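Per reviewer request, we include the raw input and output of the structure prediction for the construct analysed in the revised manuscript.
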Amino acid sequence: MITVLHRKGVAMIELIFAIVIMAIVLLSAPTLINQSVRSGYVALQQESINVLASQVNLLLTKEWDVSNTNKRIDPVVLTVDNGNDDLDMVSLTTARRIGTPIASFRSFVSSEGGVINAVDSGQFGEGNADDLKVGEPLDDIDDYDGKDTTLKGDSDAGGDNYIDLNINLRTTVAFGSDNPSSGTYNGTTLTFNHPFNNTPSGTTNIKLVSVNLTTKSDVKELAKNIRLSAFMCNLGHYRFAQARDY
């Protein structure tokens, strides 16, 4: 004879455990959903930073000055009025900087003869008078000074709603001091300290480029102020070697 014992208490305990587990899951659901939303915001922010880096790289492909965009002459080293003396032309005979070999095409004198001055910061910006004379808008780096770009992302294909309308890129270009903190250009070692905090008047041999990403969003993950900076120097251009007939 087999006796079966029914233990109803075991089923009740299992039910209680199941209810507790479901409660924990339900209580954690809002946190998980909120974290997922935040991850989406962070992904959008990272995407914006990638665009920011791409914008800086694009700027660095432009000519240093509108005077370098003249297609009639090879881009030459331009003369400036407030640059370090060590970077000036040694003499009109050599038309080179100190340390630059005569064989180099990085000369101060153009193929049309004479030297060319760098454009002062008062002419920075898109569509200034110098652009209309020599080149086209946005063909040299200082044309981007003060230019704003707003980033948008579609929330639904073909719709008019956007994930965020408040991400803005602002580009600034200014001359920076080319005076080293220590050392000289004629020596072997020189150092610069915080060149982006020093924007003197007049023209120099360095242009500072900054792209600032800002948002007006109240969301913590999007309310950022991020800046990437770079610089370009007044070096002129190299020239490709020409093939010879043998």
